[in-house]
Amino acid sequence: MNYRKLLFIFMGIYSFIFYSCNDNPTSAGLNLLKNDYINVKQIDSYADSLKQYSSEFKRSIPLGIASTILIGSNANVQSSSLIQFSIVLDDSVKQDLLAGNVSVVSSNILLYPVYTFGDTNASMDFSAHKVLNSWNPNTIDGDNANISYDQTDLSSGKTFSDSLVTFNIDNSLVTSWLKYASDTTTQPAVYGIYLMPNSSSKKIMGFQALSIGASNPSTLHVVLQKPGVYQDTLTFYPIQDASVVTGNLPALSSDEFAVQGGLTVNSKLWFDVSSIPKNTVINRALLTLTIDTASSNIGTDMTNTLDVRLLQDTVNIAFDTTQIFTLTRSGNTFQGDLTHYVQSWIDTGNNLGILLQVTNQAENVDLFAIKGSNAADRSVRPRLQLTFTSKN
Fold first, then answer.
1. How many Å apart are CA 114 and CA 69, to the nearest integer?
2. Distance between CA atoms of 359 and 356, rounded to whole angstroms?
3. CA neighbours within 13 Å on the CB side: how many for 138?
4. Cβ contacts of residue 58 below 8 Å, gap of 6+?
5. Helices (DSSP H) in the chain: which residue ranges?
6. pLDDT by residue (tens digit) across 346-370?
7. What confidence category does residue 160 fall into, taking pLDDT thresholds of 50, 70 and 90?
8. Residue ranges of the domains in the chain?
9. How far is CA 331 from CA 99, 291, 364, in A?
10. What b-and-e string marks burial along 321-353, b requiring 16 or more CB atoms within 10 Å of the CB?
């Protein structure tokens, strides 16, 4: 009996809610809806011909923070590398070195390839030079290297494979490194070696550099001998290293712009969104870029993405460092969501566009040729598709 009563009460409540929800709104309710009525609109830079412009420029960035060092030459770029090893010795070895009781029997350097730019089967060679001045990996770049070095090539016996490159380094140079580590007050200062590509090099190789978690950074092996007492092999790792990349802007068609790592080439892209009211909410902003695959040049084992940053100063090239978005490649296009950036343009009225750069641009010299804002075929120009809501 109690069950029947509960069922009856439940059905009564359900009927009341159902019929109440199906009542037409009063005239007062209609007026409220009308005042808050929101339109959903779309703008497509292709269909609606939004004004836009794109441009490229070289930008200096420090390359000593990278997890690779680059050596070689290909297309529009050439790269050399600096390495300075951390020499730590036992006190007894220091004393023997300074007294001349120990000699360097042999010394060789091992480099571990992780990247190739250009034909992987192309020739590759380099020379090694004594560096004559101090350098800072956190500030050095191709335009501001200021490296002084001895012209004599101190390398010999090079071997090349896909997994390892080795070469001998002059014993007298290594002896000077060991003696300086033994006594920095009386011995001449040392600054490492400078590895420069030879004219026969037709590709650029990237080697694992000093970085957190690096399993195979450059390695120096030194065989020391004290006649009649011992012969020992010592192993040393870099204390600092950096690439020095030089070159010119890539030669592309006039309707294209470049984005390239290492050198470094960044690009600016701007769309005119001034027709969108300030009280608008951007629901989605999708950017699509078309790649000229024939003019692009991509190395091995690198990320096929572009990073996008919100420009805050187009003269000194300043950008928002708190947020970064990524464009992902699919076939011959890059695509990604820029909703946050476009919303910022609408809210602040300050639209300086975006900066485009290769992801991990300090690690590689990958080149992407992108169809620009002046491409004759409008379908391949940079495309911004917006979905937004605003009041009537």
1. 10
2. 9
3. 1
4. 143, 249, 263, 264, 265
5. 2-21, 27-35, 91-99, 171-182, 339-348
6. 999 999 999 999 999 999 999 999 9
7. very high
8. 38-59+264-391, 68-247
9. 65, 9, 21
10. eeeebebebeeebbebebbebbbbbbeeeebbb
